[in-house]
Design goal:
There is one protein chain. This protein is mostly helical. The chain has 5 helices and no strands. The radius of gyration is 32 Å and the shape is elongated. The mean pLDDT is 76. Helices cover 45% and strands 0% of the residues.
């Protein structure tokens, strides 16, 4: 929207420095609530028009897809006694089988 106002004029009307107003125009600085109100007053438009809110459909819609929450990662810590540490022992074989089943899920 170009009303023909200079940056100096807009900055003065909004109680800003010209450089602050320039950053607003370039998008490197956000608008504060009081600045939105000042812009609406200067441009003689509503805040909905300024923010483009009149183009939105306000009816709630159902989500297009269900949200699948990721499964938490599991951490398994096992402490062995001296008798359990044999790599071909029965306990190690059973634990390896359990780990394979968990990882397959």
């Amino acid at each position: 929207m170009n009303e023909g106002f200079t940056q100096e004029y807009m900055a003065e009307q909004m109680n800003l420095s010209q450089s602050s107003y320039s950053r607003l125009e370039s998008g490197t600085r956000g608008l504060k609530e009081k600045e939105i109100r000042a812009l609406c007053k200067i441009l003689k438009i509503s805040s909905d028009d300024l923010l483009g809110m009149n183009n939105f459909n306000t009816q709630a819609k159902e989500p297009s897809a269900t949200y699948n929450k990721p499964k938490p990662k599991m951490r398994l810590t096992i402490e062995f006694t001296e008798d359990d540490v044999s790599p071909d022992g029965e306990l190690v074989k059973r634990l390896n089988e359990m780990i394979r089943k968990i990882n397959a899920q």
